[in-house]
Amino acid sequence: MLSYLHGFHAGNHADVLKHGVLALLIETLTAKPKPLVYLDSHAGAGLYDLDGEQAAKTGEFANGIGHLWPMRHDLPELAGYFDSIAALNPDGGYVRYPGSPELVRRLLRPDDRLILMELHKAEVHGLRAALDGDSRVHIHHRDGFEGLPALLPPKPARGLALIDPPYEVKTDYAEVARCLAAAHARWPTGVYAIWYPRLGLDRDQSETLLRGLLDSIPRVLIAELSVSPQTRDFGMHGSGMALVNPPWRFEERLKTLLPRLAAALTLEGTGGDNWRVAWREATA
């Protein structure tokens, strides 16, 4: 299926978590002078108009970047994320919102590379329009589940891969686990970030996904944030990032960031613990 268009969901609470964690990862990895490569299995359109028809139809960004933007000066560790948005909006605000490829492109250095995969014809057209002028960027019109392992190991052999499918079909969860296993076998030293949704009780597959990842990876760091209580319906109340080979002591940075992100994004009336950072390990 190729019906998913991220423009309807750009800038929502899940994007904020994903992009905040990505920005921290890139900042940490670029602290060393050696060049690196960023790979994105489901790159999307690269750049989104939050005043456009798709974003206006759902209004999801209002409870994501819309909540966070006024508080940006209270989150200095996400300066790179906010600076990237500001650079796209010289007149102020956040109407032009970067997808993961555009965000990372702005955070990387001249000697770094980006390898981006996208299968949806309309999305890859937008991706090329937004990023094709950058010689560091290499765009592949292909299925990221197949393409990511096929393009590994990359050169340079140091870097980060984002696996971020839309999960529009149930098989995406198993495909993520299969893709990671195949990718990790070819590039065991790479850093991997896997985004996943937290849905209503009747539809949530996050635990199944994590168990699938641990079938091939012995240890995974997870960071989850919920903005409303979990109910039985389909709605996405939160999301998570599963990290393989994260930088040393990265969990400490996440434990500092996530409670403040949760405080900024959580809807009124939501109580209890709405974030967690924890290691998950495979059982014997």
From TrEMBL:
The record marks Y4 as: Interaction with substrate rRNA. Keywords: Methyltransferase, RNA-binding, rRNA processing, S-adenosyl-L-methionine, Transferase. The active site is at D164. S-adenosyl-L-methionine binds at H19, H42, S100, E118, D143, G144, D164. One of its GO terms (biological process) is rRNA base methylation. GO terms for cellular component: cytosol. This is Ribosomal RNA large subunit methyltransferase J. It comes from Thiorhodococcus drewsii AZ1.
